[in-house]
């Protein structure tokens, strides 16, 4: 019996922890406000023939390195390379939530998008065409209500398809303006040469263009270089770099 | 474009960044990236999402316009806080005395049991008067208010009100040089300071995070609520008032204490951001999540199970041995006085300056591991120091205090000291772990302690000067 890793990503307050608790039977506290998942929690669940290790990442709005939380979530997806990254979205504010999904898809295609609070959205009269979204994103998209326990089986099936490799994703690639695209194109060969094929070169190139020092520090640390201390320097003045 | 081969001797990673910087030298690239992503999101939603009724979506904003308005925001917040306190105090009063009488009824049987088997007096003293009494006080004093306060607070939290509190407080924190999210970590401190220290990770800037860490102690946590609630309901309200009015004024006093804590939080933030932690507040986005109807029973059951029982267990685990130690200290005599009395006498002159007494200071010192046990230790200290009173309900607890010369000033200053003094041991350990700095861990104990001493000294001196006591 094989065991797959599933990372739970999502904006704060999308019911990500509720879903996590439901699947793993863990009793993390869930409140209605941003930032309550402060430590990454791990749990386990089984579906059909497979066991999954579930990792609850801190709720974040983006994967840019704005805070220790965002760095933690980003580093987990890039360096631990979970078999599936489950992006939990809030059906009632889909447009804002999709941004995180798009950022995850820039890093990995091994993702399932899960639109939570679908019952609430229906109540508010929001119709969501899942097929269209799935077609655009290029990864499985399911609608659930973690609170109402709606659509959980379907979600688990989709996680299984991605985990086992039965589903091969071709995730949406965002095309930026010409200047950025040109920069990315020039950087990609260098990135590939430096960090190898293990990491998503296009995404790293994009982050470098944005001047993301903390990503570089994490890369250095994870590639087992001797100057690992860089990440600690960044974290001086009393800030924890959560790795 | 340089090729990576041309820069031998340099770290290839650094040269990558240099190359990237060259490509993006005009800045503003973040905006372009973000608008690229937002454009795609918006496009997908236009394609796949249909809103049948935009008005329905707006209902949550209507509520927000009121609860976060400049005029109504603060009054609603204060009224809400007052209401939570009122429910807690009104609801906890009777169960507390029932539980207390139940335990003292059991104690009678325990004592006769010990007498029946001719157990030595010291054994009865350690086990019944020390261990049993200590733990039963903790339970009867702390359990009822917690069983009410935590679920009510959790309901507000799950409803989605806390981010609105943060939104209202944001302006104040900005003005004092802190970060608006400090209001969120502060709200979390109402539950547990140790957990709130971890939650400061949501603050991006190291400087503002440090401010949030340093000031978190100034909101009363689980462990301190029972002390505050008990003391304010016993001492801070005139003896003449009864019933609903009494409960109401107790709630007002508690609210006053919380406000003092907030004022100190803002002042310390302001002073620190002008001195040791200088800087300009950074910008951030605060999400106001939609209001959600809390799952009432689930919330109540879960918060009772997780918070109330946890706090109580923690209190009992620490209070049980503390009860034994306090009893022993109170019954081992050196030179005609118990060790406990010697210790209390040593602290007494200093404590009197602060409007308290040596036993109180000693309780705070022994209570460093957990704030929950400060009050029980104090009671045990008083009890073993000779004034044996049978505890039957809150009235007789008050008698113990009165027989040790308590006045409203003693109670007020103990409340202020409890609010302001150093955080508990667990919190300090967390601060050290999070900041990786002994200096800041020590400062986060020393600064509050200095403020606590300063404030209580000032209050005591003023009260004496004006002849109020």
From TrEMBL, chain A:
InterPro entries to which the protein is assigned, alphabetical: FeoB_Cyto, FeoB_GTPase, G_FEOB_dom, P-loop_NTPase
A Pfam family annotated for this UniProt entry: FeoB_Cyto
Residues spanning the membrane: none
Sequence ranges assigned to domain FeoB-type G in this UniProt record: 3-165
Gene3D superfamilies: 1.10.287.1770, P-loop containing nucleotide triphosphate hydrolases
Protein name from the UniProt record: 50S ribosome-binding GTPase
Originating species: Paenibacillus tritici
Taxonomy of the source species: Bacteria, Bacillati, Bacillota, Bacilli, Bacillales
UniProtKB/TrEMBL annotation, chain B:
Keywords of the record: Membrane, Transmembrane, Transmembrane helix
Residues that span the membrane, as ranges: 71-89, 109-132, 139-162, 182-204, 225-245, 251-272, 311-334, 354-379, 400-420, 440-466
Domain Ferrous iron transport protein B C-terminal stretches: 254-302
UniProt domain Nucleoside transporter/FeoB GTPase Gate: residue ranges: 141-230, 313-437
Pfam families with a match to the protein in the record: FeoB_C, Gate
Classification via PANTHER family: FERROUS IRON TRANSPORT PROTEIN B
Protein's recorded name: Ferrous iron transporter B
